[in-house]
């Protein structure tokens, strides 16, 4: 019975699917950003997030577990080296999936998947608007600043994010034109 099996099979047999996700994960670790179909990007996010979490604990067991998934020594070195240093304090959400439109040939929805901490354009806007305290749902006894200051900071951050998205889509379009 197949009760509760809800992951995307991607139209492939299990061995083919595992090889595909392994290759996509190694490419993402090497290049920090790749372009693929939306379905593959979502499946890759589920596949690689636990591996990135394991890379934060740099011991022999976690290296062996991650190597059993990736089977690539260079990817393991990169993952446990510079990537683990950058994501060390992040509690989760290591990758970002950005939809970039439809492929001309077959109409597949394309997406770019990237490691969050390696995109400097997005990180500039996020660092300037950060507050030192975590925002709680109920409010609490925290001292609030004036609403005018917070709304202007939010507007500036949204503008930065929008310009970053525009730059990314332009870069993708330029790379597609160069391929033709």
Tally of DSSP helical segments: 6
- What spatial order of strands do you see in the largest sheet? 1-3-2
Instruction: Please give the share of residues in helix.
Output: 55-70%
SS class: mainly alpha
**Global Rg:** 19 Å
Contiguous low-pLDDT stretches (5 residues minimum) are none
The backbone outline, from C-alpha atoms, is globular
Largest sheet: 3 strands, antiparallel
Strand fraction: 5-15%
Describe the structure.
The chain has 180 residues and is mainly alpha-helical. Helix content is 57%, strand content 11%. A 3-stranded antiparallel beta sheet has the order 1-3-2. The longest helix is centred in the last third of the chain and has 33 residues, at 147-179. It is globular and about 55 Å long. 15% of the residues are buried.
Summarize the structure.
This protein has 180 residues and is mainly α. The chain is built from 6 helices and 3 strands; from the N terminus they run H-E-H-H-H-E-E-H-H. A hairpin with a 6-residue loop joins strand 2 and strand 3.
């Amino acid at each position: 019975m197949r009760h509760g099996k809800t992951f995307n099979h991607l139209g492939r047999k299990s061995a083919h699917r595992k090889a595909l996700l392994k290759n996509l994960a190694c490419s993402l670790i090497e290049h920090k950003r790749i372009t693929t179909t939306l379905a593959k990007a979502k499946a890759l996010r589920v596949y690689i997030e636990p591996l990135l979490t394991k890379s934060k604990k740099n011991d022999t067991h976690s290296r062996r577990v991650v190597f059993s998934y990736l089977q690539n020594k260079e990817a393991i070195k990169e993952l446990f080296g510079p990537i683990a240093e950058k994501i060390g304090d992040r509690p989760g959400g290591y990758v970002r999936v950005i939809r970039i439109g439809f492929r001309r040939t077959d109409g597949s929805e394309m997406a770019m998947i990237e490691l969050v901490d390696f995109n400097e354009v997005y990180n500039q806007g996020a660092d300037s608007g950060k507050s030192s305290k975590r925002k709680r749902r109920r409010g609490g006894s925290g001292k609030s600043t004036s609403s005018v200051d917070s709304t202007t900071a939010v507007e500036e951050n949204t503008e930065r994010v929008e310009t970053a998205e525009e730059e990314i889509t332009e870069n993708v379009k330029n790379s597609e034109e160069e391929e033709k």
